Amino acid sequence: MTVSITGKTKIFGLLGYPVSHTFSPPIQNVAFQANKIDAAYLPFEVHPDNLKSAIEGIRSLQFAGVNVTIPHKINVLPYLDEITPTAARIGAVNTIRNDRGKLLGTNTDGSGLLRSLSALSFSPKDQTVVILGAGGSTRSILVAFAEKEAKRIFLVNRTWANAQLLVEEYAPLYPETEFKVESLENLFCQAIDLLLNTTSVGMKKGESPVDLAKFESLERVADIIYSPQQSSLLKQAEHLKIPYINGTGMLLFQGIEAFEFWTSQPAPISLMEQKLLKLLNG
Ligand SMILES: NC(=O)c1ccc[n+]([C@@H]2O[C@H](COP(=O)([O-])OP(=O)(O)OC[C@H]3O[C@@H](n4cnc5c(N)ncnc54)[C@H](OP(=O)(O)O)[C@@H]3O)[C@@H](O)[C@H]2O)c1
């Protein structure tokens, strides 16, 4: 794929530290080309000490928009002019749009995951969900589920206090949803619509955060891990014939939502998906 640069090319990019592992440039550049948008997307490695000047650079160089990744998603907040209510509730931003010098931040991680869950015919309203983990990605997912009026969210985490902090923060904001920290054993006999792994357990071969065979009534399983593509958790789901998805869809749709936030155009989803799958499998 060649990107042709003109005098009018709009510049988009990714700010992270590191950024060498990212799939975003090929996926976003394919989308700009397919939609005939004169734009290019580049990776920018920004040391944490330089974050403020990098954000000022977006304004002075008139970049059209950027994604923000680890470790900048929270620290970038003070440098923006405005953030969406969703990003404010999550407390982190992964996408910034430059509206004529005004920087607007949003967060597409949770909404991206939600869109990926349509592959399991899942939407959160009135559903009971078990979330394993209480880290950065969990926050965006909790907000996405609660905004769509999930009935009950059980949080299971190695460090109970981290999950309890999330419950204390979000339960008052979303009275329609019941939030509870729970131990796994107490959930085995519950009717669960979705079990979602948001921990990093499963990135190493053979490790699984839970034994799925112990659940009596479990409709669906999702893992936000995408490498490996089939974690041990998902291997169990396949063996038990429980419908499941991995984290590729979340990765894809957070990028699709960023593209749509920047361009106000529908993204070429299948092209972006093909590109991502080729990169992940290649
Ligand atoms: N598909 C996507 O687009 C996407 C997006 C973001 C993240 N991810 C993946 O999601 C995973 C989590 O990312 P994150 O940014 O949320 O990480 P994070 O903020 O560091 O949180 C990690 C979570 O995993 C738990 N954990 C870590 N090691 C554990 C262990 N050995 N046993 C039990 N629990 C353990 C932590 O529990 P404690 O609270 O006890 O420390 C915490 O709840 C990573 O694998 C990442 O690659 C995927």
Give a written overview of the molecule.
The protein has helices at residues 24-34, 51-60, 85-90, 109-116, 136-147, 160-170, 232-239, 248-263, 269-281, and strands at 10-16, 39-45, 65-68, 82-83, 95-99, 102-106, 128-132, 152-156, 178-181, 191-192, 194-197, 217-218, 221-223, 244-245. Helix 4 packs across helix 5 (136-147), helix 4 packs across helix 8 (248-263) and helix 8 packs across helix 9 (269-281). The chain is built from 9 helices and 14 strands. The protein has 2 domains: 10-107 and 250-281, Rossmann fold, CATH 3.40.50.10860; 111-245, Rossmann fold. The radius of gyration is 19 Å and the shape is globular. The longest helix is centred in the C-terminal third of the chain and has 16 residues, at 248-263. It starts with 9 loop residues before the first strand and ends with a helix. The chain has 282 residues and is of the alpha/beta class. The chain has a 6-stranded mixed β-sheet, with helices on both faces. The protein has a 6-stranded parallel β-sheet with strand order 9-8-7-11-13-14, sandwiched between helices. Strand 5 and strand 6 (102-106) form a beta hairpin. The mean pLDDT is 97. The protein is 34% helix and 20% strand. The structure holds NADP nicotinamide-adenine-dinucleotide phosphate. Residues 109, 133-138, 157-159, 162, 198-201, 203, 224-226, 247, 250-251, 254 line the site of NADP nicotinamide-adenine-dinucleotide phosphate.
